């Protein structure tokens, strides 16, 4: 597929997640709540997770920010649901690598998240894309510490 067509497809996927976010809202029965912001651009995320027996049972987010930030949160909540916490954190690390322009294992099915790969070309936008992922990592880390 020519690069322009691929770029257009990726833009369409990002805008779809921005305009029609998946898992938008607040989990009433959650055990992890994380609020984070990106002071350089004003993006804000409120992430709630339900983690039981080492599995992310559910994930929802609310926030304000650019299309990249909110689309990334939507995509992230989709991919981590029903995954064990180690896998969720592994996805976060792989996503960070992708944002840094590093090659990632082709066997990993990132689904719609692949649409954010072009953000690596715009260093100022990387923090927008990674905000929800950082919040998820922090929340899972805090939940793991409190469970011990």
TrEMBL record:
<feature type="domain" description="NIF system FeS cluster assembly NifU N-terminal">
    <location>
        <begin position="10"/>
        <end position="128"/>
    </location>
</feature>
<protein>
    <submittedName>
        <fullName>Fe-S cluster assembly sulfur transfer protein SufU</fullName>
    </submittedName>
</protein>
<dbReference type="InterPro" id="IPR002871">
    <property type="entry name" value="NIF_FeS_clus_asmbl_NifU_N"/>
</dbReference>
<dbReference type="Pfam" id="PF01592">
    <property type="entry name" value="NifU_N"/>
</dbReference>
């Amino acid at each position: 597929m020519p690069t322009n067509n691929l770029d257009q497809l990726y833009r369409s996927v990002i805008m779809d997640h921005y305009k029609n976010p998946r898992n938008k809202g607040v989990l009433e029965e959650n055990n992890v709540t994380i609020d984070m912001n990106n002071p350089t651009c004003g993006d804000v995320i409120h992430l709630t997770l339900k983690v039981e027996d080492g599995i992310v049972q559910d994930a929802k987010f609310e926030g304000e920010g650019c299309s990249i930030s909110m689309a990334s949160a939507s995509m992230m909540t989709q991919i981590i649901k029903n995954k064990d916490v180690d896998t969720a954190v592994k996805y976060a690390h792989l996503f960070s690598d992708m944002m840094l322009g590093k090659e990632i294992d082709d066997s990993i099915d990132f689904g719609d998240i692949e649409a954010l790969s072009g953000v690596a070309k715009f260093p100022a936008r990387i923090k927008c894309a990674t905000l929800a992922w950082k919040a998820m990592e922090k929340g899972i880390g805090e939940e793991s510490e409190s469970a011990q």
